[in-house]
Amino acid sequence: MVKKWWKTVVDVFHVYQSYKVPEFNNNLQENHLYMKVYAYLNSLSSMEDSDFTNLFTGKKSNEIILRLYQNQIVGDEFLAVPGRVLGARVCWYNKENEDGTRSFVLKIRKADKWRILGPYLQHIHKSD
Q1: Is this model's pTM higher than 0.85 or not?
Q2: Where is the AAA-type ATPase N-terminal domain (predicted)?
Q3: Cα separation of 82 and 85, whole Å?
């Protein structure tokens, strides 16, 4: 409750930019970046700390997969790339559209976006 209240207060005083990563493109082909973001978010320790996370079994019998509930927020902190300290917090949330398709939405402070957006997305794309 306090987290949500604080987030609302911060949103009033900071201007954010949002980026949507849809599950499918306009031709209904799978968006590979969506799958990279999905895998990356599942690897974050903050996913386990999220207020509400769905649990599923994976392809392997002993595998458990965490999945954000609709509109649930998970935070991430992007600190550095080789040779530069960037230090910015971002958050992701899982959005389900009216047509049943899903998207991840990245929310980042506008003041940070030019510094970290490219390196952050490259970091996600390279992670396994």
Answers
A1: no
A2: 3-81
A3: 8
